[in-house]
Write a structure and sequence with these properties.
three-stranded mixed sheet; Phage tail protein beta-alpha-beta fold; 30% helix; Jelly Rolls; 13-stranded mixed sheet; alpha+beta; globular
Length: 330
């Protein structure tokens, strides 16, 4: 059983396998991510070993399922790796373990192409940023977003660690564009789409073109094709869901706006707090189910609070630290 204070193995390869297992475990904590980032940046060899495992993981999705199962069932060779590494990889999923066992086979398929470039970007609270990639694709990053971009010979891969971004992908049939957000993967050749990764949820919204969304482990993976104005949502222990939606409203943050359509006040406040410098606190549970609708400027806290007081039975109380309490009007 994993605990928050588990010790990272001393051996670099074992440590890389350990962290890969944690990242793909489905219960990777914020404090673990901080430790993982520190380990990854501490030594270039750490990054090299981790990226090698990531390439293997990507390759397992390209292998036919029956051949992947054969690799998993193949006996271990002592010269290929130590038993401890297989134990760590088991935590990341049998697909990755199988790929390590059959690494030679994957090379024969030509799937482990070399990394040609690695880029990292991040935004903080209240910061939005547009990034133009070397291939001409553009990423619009929302607040509190962290991602990395890796160019391979045959694909472009973005790892969205947290937050939200809209991708305007430069078409390239020979080099597909892939966005990974935990166990959710989005694959395109050229289109405009938005990916949001929260702690318990990943949502993919397509503005134009089409994308393929896959979610779950390789032995129980769900796949859906999305076209314009379609949204896929992935939650833990729930099936992949696809609905039609107003993608323009969902991505209004790119114009400095946020749109609410008769939503619970609890959800409205949580969303606005992503952008506000000083958060809003609900002091009474009876406020949570109240409904709110409207279009608001993400930087206009005063206007938002005024609208709340106009349309709902609430009173605003300023706190010494600059944040705000919302109380039920009596």
């Amino acid at each position: 059983m994993h605990t928050e204070n588990s010790t990272t193995p001393d051996d670099i390869q074992d440590a890389a396998a350990y962290w890969f297992a944690r990242v793909h475990s489905g219960n990777f904590t914020v404090s673990e991510r901080e430790r993982f980032t520190a380990w990854r940046n501490a030594n270039p060899k750490h990054e090299q070993e981790y990226r090698a495992l990531d390439q293997i993981w990507q390759a397992t999705g390209m292998l036919p399922e029956d051949e992947l199962r054969e690799l998993l069932e193949a006996p271990d060779s002592p010269s290929q790796k130590r038993v401890s590494r297989r134990q760590w990889l088991a935590g990341a999923g049998v697909a990755c373990a199988a790929a390590v066992v059959g690494g030679v086979a994957l090379h024969n398929y030509g799937m482990l192409d070399a990394t040609t470039d690695v880029l990292q970007y991040a935004t903080v609270q209240g910061e939005q940023r547009n990034v133009e990639l070397p291939d001409g694709s553009v990423i619009a990053m929302n607040v509190n977003t962290e991602l990395s971009v890796r160019y391979y010979t045959g694909r472009r891969v973005v790892e969205l660690a947290r937050g939200e971004a809209t991708f305007e992908v430069e078409p390239n049939l020979e080099r597909p564009f892939i966005v990974d957000a935990g166990d959710t993967s989005v694959r395109v050749t050229g289109t405009v789409f938005n990916v949001r990764r929260d702690q318990e949820r990943v949502a993919v919204a397509v503005e134009s073109g089409s994308v393929e969304v896959s979610a779950g482990r390789w032995w129980n993976k769900e796949t859906a094709m999305l076209t314009a104005d379609m949204v896929a949502e992935v939650k833990a222990n729930a099936p992949l869901s696809v609905v039609r939606a107003d993608v323009g409203a969902l991505t209004a943050w790119r114009q400095g706006k946020v749109v609410f359509r008769d939503q619970p006040l609890e959800d409205v406040v949580r969303e606005m707090n992503r952008y506000l410098r000083h958060p809003i606190h609900l002091t009474d549970s009876r406020l949570k189910p109240l409904r709110m609708a409207g279009v608001f400027n993400i930087q206009d806290a005063e206007g938002f609070l005024q609208a709340l007081q106009t349309h709902l039975p609430v009173v605003v109380v300023q706190r010494p630290d600059g944040s705000v309490n919302l109380a039920l009007l009596r």
